[in-house]
Structure formats: structure tokens, C-alpha cells
Amino acid sequence: MASFRVKGGNHLKGEIIPQGAKNEALQILCAVLLTPEEVTIHKIPNIRDVNKLIELLGDMGVKVTKLGPESYSFKADQVNLDYLETEDFLKKASALRGSVMILGPLLARFGTGKLSKPGGDKIGRRRMDTHFFGFQKLGAKFHYDSKNEIFHIDGNNLKGCYMLLDEASVTGTANIVMAAVMAEGKTTIYNAACEPYLQQLCDMLNRMGAKITGVGSNLLHIDGVKKLGGTEHKMLPDMIEIGSFIGLAAMTQSEITIKDAQVHRLGIIPETFRRMGIKLEIKGDDIYIPAQKHYEIETFIDGSILTVADAIWPGFTPDLLSIVLVTATQAKGTVLVHQKMFESRLFFVDKLIDMGAQIILCDPHRATVIGLDRKYPLKGIRMTSPDIRAGVSLLIAALSANGTSIIDNIEQIDRGYQYIDERLNALGAEIERIA
Ligand SMILES: CC(=O)N[C@H]1[C@@H](OP(=O)(O)OP(=O)(O)OC[C@H]2O[C@@H](n3ccc(=O)[nH]c3=O)[C@H](O)[C@@H]2O)O[C@H](CO)[C@@H](O)[C@@H]1O
Ligand SMILES: C=C(OP(=O)(O)O)C(=O)O
Q1: Cis peptide preceding 314, ω within 30 of 0
Q2: 102-142, pLDDT tens digit by residue?
Q3: Minimum CA distance residue for ligand 1 atom 33
Q4: pLDDT digits 0-9 by tens, 369-420
Q5: Ligand 1 neighbours by CB, cut-off 6 Å
Q6: Closest CA relative to residue 347, chosen from 372, 383, 374, 312
Q7: Which of 49, 131, 167 to mutate to test the pocket of ligand 1 (most atoms within 8 A of CB)?
Q8: Where phosphoenolpyruvate is bound, by residue (predicted)?
Q9: What pTM value is reported for the model?
């Protein structure tokens, strides 16, 4: 278990380029299984989850060629389905959440799929009903072996249909879309998730020959095609990393320019940080955050306390709520952070409270943060990173704190943030990776 030793109090300065989007990469990589032709992908982040998925694809027989630091080509012309029967496959696939999205492509192309319970953050119940509900609607048979926690699906000759999803699940929608693109006839998916990750996936599938309309909305129409071909794809900058850098800049009084942020794809993320009082200037496609001694959280128009809550896209992503929460600890004012989707994602606030933050955890979904307006800086402590976004929030807290902090279990952070220590040290941070 590796750790970060973080010296707090430095003001950072400079430019940072966001990595390719982690959650998009996980979808896009699974889609290479849909064609025997070559698929070239650019801006692939060098992070644990993505590397594990690439390794898994290689183990399944996909030919993987590294073309450059962030570019790979994939050719799934000889997928070894027997590998799916091995312990090794089940173990590797269960190490990350994104692996669940190999099921849709496997079902579409080979009529069968198998997976052990996928991993990912332990942030509450993470049900997969929507995925299997969609597969079943297309005509697949689904069986869950609860003893061994293995999901089996089988179904040749999938047939297009109308379906209304029980929730707008992100990975669920991606999985169902990938299963449906080669089903016979028309599929309509209502209450589909429509995050930029999914827009990117659908655009890529269309370039491969799929016929998907409604991209970017919650109503997708898919005309099944017989086969898909190769393509080239470039990942968007990671919007969660961009939000994390905005929070980091505010907390540490840093002057940071986030380069090539594709601002028009960020939805209400910039506006949400503005409501936290943080000054942002959009310069072309860059986001410039000046050094700010003070920032004041807005109230609602009637003067009542601001709530920042997650919602399905185009609402505010749940993956940035931990960052909003930590950023509020040094703002002036009060905010209620309401994490509606996950029930165990706010417990990390006990570490921030130990550092001196004023937070009331109202219940597992809601925390009220009373900003200290930098009157009482946080103090460095030893802490463990419970999940990826809490981990980065603790890193931001540690960088702003008086004294030195140790953050354990940084594998969680490495799951989603590429060379985070080196990139922040280049801006003036002092983060040391210790064994
Ligand atoms: C690999 C990947 O892409 N992971 C992301 C993906 O996870 P993932 O696709 O696993 O998350 P889902 O979208 O399925 O659901 C997330 C949670 O929200 C709940 N839910 C979902 C939809 C809805 O309309 N109502 C509702 O309450 C679900 O029950 C679940 O508890 O999307 C989540 C929600 O943006 C993100 O936090 C994860 O980072
Ligand atoms: C929860 C997240 O990831 P995963 O779904 O991979 O656990 C996340 O990216 O914030």
C-alpha cells in the first residue's frame, strides 16, 4: 500500500493539461470488441483502471499495439472466448467497475458473456439491474450465480425493442447500446443516460457503422446493423479532473490555467464552482483560475443556504461532490452538499473534521459545510483514501493545510488520476510518493 507525503501551504502556479476521461475510456475500450477491424484510440489516460482493462482485453486475445504515450490500436479479430471460463479472467475483470461493459459487446458479437461482480469504489450499493434488464429486453437470458457472484448472459439473435430504463445508469446505458447496435431491427432506449462519455461512445459507434440517433438526449433510437468496422477515436479531457483542478486552485490560492478543457462539454461544472465563489475565466478553450485569497459561497436568491446536489446529466456529476465539499471548507459561507446517488460517499468528512474543518454530516447523503474563510487553516494529519474522489479531496485538503500530511491507500487515487504527484509538483506542490 503506497502513500503520499504532502507538504501543505504551497501556492501553485502554471498550466496543466487534463488527462483523457477515465470513464469515457472504459466504455470506448470495451467497444473495440464489437469489430474484427482495427480501432485506434488517442488520449488514453495512463491510470490503473484503464491499464487493467487494456491488459484484460489483451488476455482475451485482442491485439493491442501501443502507438505513442497516449495512443493505442486494438484488433479483436481472434477473441478467445475460452478465456472467459478461467479463474484469471474472473479475477481480473472484477478488479474494476468498467469491465462490466465488455458484456454488451460480447453479447452483440458472440451471443454470450460472463463476468464476476465488478469492482470499483465502495461508495454504496452499485446495482446492475438496469444492465441485465436491458439485455433481457433484447432477448438475452440472464442468470446470476449468487454463490460465486458470477453473471452469465446468453442470447444469439438479439431483437430490437422499446425499453424504458428503470434508471439512467451510465455504464448500464453504454452496455445496452453496445448490445443493441447489432440486434435485428429497431431499439428505442428511453431514460438513457446521456453523459458526454455516452455521447462520445455513440459518436464512435456511428463512425464504425452503427445507426444511433438521439445522441445527447435520454431517448436513443438504434437501427441494428449486421456488422461494425474499424475507426479512430480521441477521448475528451476528463471533466472530473478539470473540476478537481478548479477546487485545488481555490483551496491552495493557486493561479492555474487548465489547458484545452473543451469548456462547451463541461455542462454546469464551471457554473457550480462559480456559485462556490471561485473566479474562473474562460480564455478560448482554457480555464484560467486566478489566485484567490477569499471566495464566498452564494446563497439561493431568497437568501437561504445553497445546496449542491448530484443529478443525472446534464445535472451535476456525483463524482465532483467530494471536491465541492472540500473546497467549501475554506470558503466564506455555508453549503449543503447532497449526494443523492451513493450512500457511502460522504463518510470521508471525518478526516476533514480531524484536520479542523467545520462539517456536520447530517446523514449518509448530506453534509453541511461551514466555510472557515481561511481564518483557521486545516492542519496536516495522517489519513487513508477511501475512494477515488475522496482521495483527491484529501490530497487537496493536505496541499492547503498547515504542516505535513500522509495519505495512505493512494492506489485509489492512481485508479483515476494520471501522474498526479508529478504533474502537481511541476506547478510547485510538494508531494512525495512513499512505499
Ligand atoms: C466507470 C463509470 O463510468 N463509473 C461512473 C458511473 O458508474 P455506474 O454506471 O456504475 O453508475 P450508475 O449510473 O449505474 O448509478 C450510480 C448510482 O446512482 C443511482 N442512480 C442512477 C441513476 C438514476 O437515475 N438514479 C439513481 O439513483 C444508482 O442506483 C447508483 O447507486 O456513473 C456514476 C454516476 O454518474 C459515476 O459516479 C461513476 O464514476
Ligand atoms: C466512482 C468512480 O469510479 P468507478 O465507477 O470506477 O468506481 C468515479 O470515477 O468517481
Answers
A1: yes
A2: 999 999 999 999 988 887 777 778 888 999 999 999 999 98
A3: 170
A4: 999 999 999 999 999 999 999 999 999 999 999 999 999 999 999 999 999 9
A5: 23, 26, 97-98, 124-127, 167-172, 312, 317-319, 341-342
A6: 383
A7: 167
A8: 22-23
A9: 0.97
ipTM: 0.98
SS3 assignment, position 115: strand
Q: Which of 49, 121, 310, 387 is catalytic?
A: 121
Average pLDDT value for residue range 251-278? 98
Q: What is the average pLDDT value for the chain, to the nearest integer?
A: 96
Catalytic annotation present for 121: yes
Q: Where are the beta strands (DSSP E) in 35-149?
A: 38-42, 63-68, 71-75, 112-116, 141-145
Instruction: Assess whether the C-beta atom of 388 lies below 6 angstroms from ligand 2.
Output: yes
As a dihedral over the C-alpha atoms of residue 379, residue 410, residue 240, residue 426, rounded to 10 degrees, the angle is 70
Number of helices (H) and strands (E) in the chain: give both, helices first: 14, 23
Q: Rounded to the nearest whole angstrom, what is the distance from the C-alpha of residue 89 to the centroid of ligand 2? A: 21
Ligand 2: which atom is nearest the Cα of residue 119? Answer: 7
Question: Does ligand 2 have an atom closer than 6 angstroms to the CB of 121?
Answer: yes
Which residues make Cβ contacts (< 8 Å) with residue 271, sequence separation at least 6? none
In the block, cell 448530484 appears at 310
Ligand having the closest approach to the CA of 168: 1
Closest residue to atom 2 of ligand 2, CA basis: 121
In the 8-state DSSP scheme, what is residue 292? -
